[in-house]
Amino acid sequence: MPSYTGNIEVETAGEVQIIDITDRVQKFVERSSIKEGIALVFVPGSTGAITTVEYEPGLLEDIPRALERLFPKEMKYEHHERWHDGNGHSHVRASFLKPDLCVPISAGEVELGTWQQIIFIELDNKPRRRRIIVKVVGE
Q: Strands of 109-110's sheet, edge to edge?
């Protein structure tokens, strides 16, 4: 089965920065020449996440607030106690959001809802240089 792999590089500011990567994923699908299949989007690392959202200013404010309510930075995290890096909350948030997403491809296009975009969320407490892997598989 044919496949195509590429990388998206992003520089982040840290702490719940949300980046729309939909167009970059679509470009990899187009380069792959695969018309029917699946695009896997994956971020290596334990403090980043890939998901979908309606990428609009309200949600860009709501998501960080919701993450803070669910996984507060100031809570005691054993990871921080062990490593003293202050990012225990980042690891827990990432484990719930997940590092990957599979998106169907039809007629050479990623299939998303009208208001749905693919996003990367930086969850670490410091700026990072991230590599996001896109693997397109199909025919």
A: 3-11, 129-138, 37-42, 100-106, 109-110
Is pTM beyond 0.85? Reply is: yes
| Nearest alpha-carbon partner for 123 in 71, 59, 74 | 71
Q: Return all residues near 54 (Cβ < 8 A) that are at least 6 apart.
A: 115, 116, 117
Q: What are the pLDDT digits (tens) for 39-58?
A: 999 999 999 999 999 999 99
Rounded CA separation 134/82 (Å): 33
> Which residue ranges make up each domain of the chain?
3-138
| Top-level class of domain 3-138 | mainly beta
